[in-house]
Amino acid sequence: MCGIVGYLGKKDGIKSVLLGLKELEYRGYDSAGIAAIDIEGILIDKKVGRVSKLEKSLKKSSNKYSLAIGHTRWATHGKPTEANAHPHFNTSKNIFVVHNGIIENYQEIKDLLIKNGYKFESETDTEVVPHLIDYYYNKTNNLEKAFELTIKDLQGAYAIEMISTLSPRNIYIARLGSPLVIGNKNKEYFIASDPTAIIEQTNKVRFLEDYDIAIVSDKGLKVKNLRSNKDSKSNFELLEYVSEESSLGKFPNFMLKEIHDIPKTIETALKGRINVSKGTVKLGGLDSVIKQLEHIDRIIIIACGTSYYAGLVGEYLIEEIAGIPTEVQLASEFKYRNEPISRSTVVIAVSQSGETADTIAALKKVEEYGVLRLGVVNSIGSSIARMTDAGVYCHAGAEKAVASTKAFVAQTTVLALIALRLSKSKGLLNKKVIKELDKLPKLVEEILDSSDKIKTVANKYKNNKDFLYIGRGYNYPSALEGALKLKEISYIHAEGYAAGEMKHGPLALIDESFPTMAIATDSRLLDKVKSNIEEIKARKGPIITISTKGNRNISKLSDDNIFIPSTIEQLQPILVCVSLHLFSYYVAEGLGRDVDKPRNLAKSVTVE
Ligand code: F6R
C-alpha cells in the first residue's frame, strides 16, 4: 500500500509534497517521511504516526526546497518505526528512495550487498534499493544507468522515486504493478501514486505504465519502457476533474459524512441512466461493447472485501433479472485458480479505488483468454478503469473513510443497472426494479432520520465481544457486509452467515452472551429466516432484527429491532446495509475508535 509523492519546480516542494501526502494518507498512515534537496543542502525527516506529525515537525524548517519526495507508509516489512519509515538512503546519504509495493527478491539482493560491505538500518525490503543504486553507481559512475540496472534487478511490485545530490535537479521514477502518475504545470512537475494527490495542483497528467522508467528534470519528462526498450512519448492528458467537497461540514468524521452522502450517491449513479416511465436503462460506458455482450453465457465478478459483497448482490441481480449465469470470486483466489474460461465469458472487476492489487492481478490473468473485461469502478482514471475494455463508473465521489459505505451502495446500484441493461426482457420485474431504484434516495433519507434509534441499539450492544449476522437470499451478502463493517471499525469479532447454515455449525456458538443480527425483511424467504430466529432464541441468544417497517410480527420476535422502509427484496441490501453501516459506526463511536482510520488497515490495498 503506501503513498508516494514528489515535486520538482521552483516553488515550495515541501508544501506540495505535504499536500499530496495528506490526500494519500488513505493508503497507509502508520508513518510518514520526506527527503528534499536544494542549494542549501538536504532535508530528511521521518515520523511515526500521521502526516500531521510530520507537517508539524517540518514547520521548523524555513527553507522551501524545490525538489522533494515524500511517503506515507502502511507497514509490510518491519514495524512502524522511524528507521523503517521512508525515504530510505545509502550509507553516504546522497541517494534517497521512496517505494510503494513489495520487493520480493529483497533478501537475495540484501545478501549480495552485505557481502559487498553494505550495512542496513531498517527491516524493510525497500532499503536494498538505495544501496543497490549506490553499488551500481560505484561501478558505472552514471546515476541514470545505476537506477536502470537496479530497477532491472527488482522482482515484485513497485512504484519508486529516487532523488540524489549526485544529480540534484532530477527525480528518477519507475513503475511495475503499482500506479504512478506525473502531473505538469508550466515548469513544475508533481508525482504521485494517484491523481487525487496532485489534482488540486494540476489536471494535466501522464500515467506511467508497467516497466516504465522516467526522469523528471527542468528540461522536462523522459520516459522509457524497459520491456520494449524504447523511449515513450511523454504525452500528457487532461483529467476530467470535478472539485469535491472535501471538508467534513457538520460531521465529526468522513465515515458518517459519507453515509449521509448516500441519497445523493444513488441519485448520481442513476442520473441519465434510467427512464422510469419507459422502464429502460442506458449505460453509455457499455455502448462500445454492447454487441459482444449479446453473446455472453457466463459472467465472473472479481473483487475484494466490501466490493466482493456488492458483487455478490450483483450475482443475485444479474441471474434473476438478466438470466445469465454469474459467479463472484475473490480476486486473491481467482488469480491462482486454473479454471476453464471460455471466450463467451465476461469478467467484471468491482473496485472503489480501482487500484486493488489482487483485482488488478486477476484482470491481468484473464488478458490472455481474450475475454471482455468490464469495470465497475469509482475512482476516475484509476488503473482498473484504464485497463478494462469498458465499464460503468460509480460516481460516488471521493470516499475517504477506510470503511467503504457510499461506494458499496453505488456499486450495488450500478450492478443493478448492468443487470437491467443485460436483460433481454423488458418485463414486469425490470420495470419494478427501475421504479424502486428511483425511490431509493428518499428511502435512505428515512433511515438516516432514524439514526438515533440505531445509535440506541448500538450503545446497548457495544460491549459484546462477538456478533453473528445472518440473512438469506439477497440479504445473505448484507449479513457478510454487516459483519465485515463491524469488525473493521469496532474491532469486535463478527461473522456473517447464510441463515440456513446455522444448524450446520454456527448454532454451537450461541448463548446469552452471543447476539445475532438477523436480517428479517419482507421477502420470499422471510418465514425461513423466522424459523432460524426461533432456533437462536431457543438457545437464549439475544436477537436484533432488521425488518420492514410495519411488520410488527418480526419486532415481537426480537430483543431489539431496526426498521427499514419497504422496498422490493432485490434492492433491500442497499437499505439494510445503510442501517448496518450506521449500527457499526455507532458501536465504534461508542467505543471511542478512530472510525475513519481503523488500526492496521489502509483504504487502498495496493500490495497482494
Ligand atoms: C471494507 C473495505 C474493503 C474494500 C476492499 C476492496 O470496508 O473498504 O474491504 O472494499 O479493500 O477495495 P476496492 O473496492 O478499492 O477494490
What does this molecule look like?
The chain is of the alpha/beta class and 608 residues long. The protein folds into three domains: 3-238, 4-Layer Sandwich (Glutamine Phosphoribosylpyrophosphate, subunit 1, domain 1); 249-444, 3-Layer(aba) Sandwich (Rossmann fold); 450-597, Rossmann fold (3-Layer(aba) Sandwich), CATH 3.40.50.10490. Helix 7 (262-270) packs parallel to helix 13 and helix 9 (305-322) runs antiparallel to helix 16 (475-490). The longest helix has 22 residues, at 428-449. The radius of gyration is 26 Å and the shape is globular. The chain starts with a strand and ends in an 18-residue tail after the last helix. 55% of the residues are buried. Fructose -6-phosphate binds next to helix 9 and helix 16.
Give the biggest sheet. Answer: 8 strands, antiparallel
- Summed over residues and divided by their number, the pLDDT gives a mean of 94
Instruction: Look at the structure and name the CATH superfamily of the largest domain.
Output: Aminohydrolase, N-terminal nucleophile (Ntn) domain
Indicate the percent of residues in helices: 25-40%
Task: List all distinct small molecules, including ions and cofactors, that are bound in this structure.
Answer: fructose -6-phosphate
Number of helices: 19
